[in-house]
Amino acid sequence: MKDEKQAAKSAERVQEQPMTNSLPDEDLMFHVRNGVGESLGELFSRYQDPLFSFYCRLTGDRSLSEDLVQDVFYRILKYRQTYRPGTSFRTWMYQIARNARLDSIRKEHVQKDQMKVPLESDIAAPIPTDRVQQEQEAALLHRALMQLPEEKREILVLSRFQELKYDEIAQLLGCEVGTVKVRVFRALKELKTAFQQLESQRVVKSPLGSQS
Question: Cα separation of 60 and 54, whole Å?
Fold first, then answer.
């Protein structure tokens, strides 16, 4: 009964508002659920980049990330009838994204030591020192992130990069908000340790570090 009322409210909003990019995600998904395929294009425009960023930080593989983004929207269209009107579209979408990632691991037997880390290697002109340092630190941070176990990497990407709220993550993972907070804290602590180790290795290997 509750779902029926929420669906009715969504239908009323859809009828009152034109099909523009000002519609909420949930109303657009209501369109998609009822066969209006054009609305999927707007959702794709909104979430293509966030999903690509999500997968890049999880896998370090740009090509695989592009494929996974396409797979997510294929699944959204295929399983559109499973979306319950009134529920958060973003949470529902990231659940699909997580499932697509897990299926990819099972299918391709992706190993952590095979994951590629994107680095800035094609620099055509000199870059200011501060920018170089920022890029080096960003690369180190990404390498440190890639060293974490999948579940810790995922929860950091969701909370710190995708900026999902703790209650959204709790709903995705099927746990309490307090549990999410503890997992994020522990993952951040492990990330800091990994980053510091990589940073110390960089200092030792640098020319300045080898001078007597």
Answer: 10
Instruction: Report CA-CA distances (Å) from 173 to 147, 166, 179.
Output: 21, 10, 10
CB of 82 within 8 A of CB of 91?
Answer: no
Topology of the domain covering 127-206: Arc Repressor Mutant, subunit A (1.10.10)
Q: What is the pLDDT of residues 142-190, one digit of tens each?
A: 888 999 999 999 999 999 889 899 999 999 999 999 999 999 999 999 9
Residues 6+ apart with CB under 8 A from 164: 90, 91, 94, 158, 172
Under CATH, what is the fold of the domain 21-115? Rna Polymerase Sigma Factor; Chain: A (1.10.1740)
Count the Cβ atoms, other than its own, within 10 Å of residue 129. Answer: 8
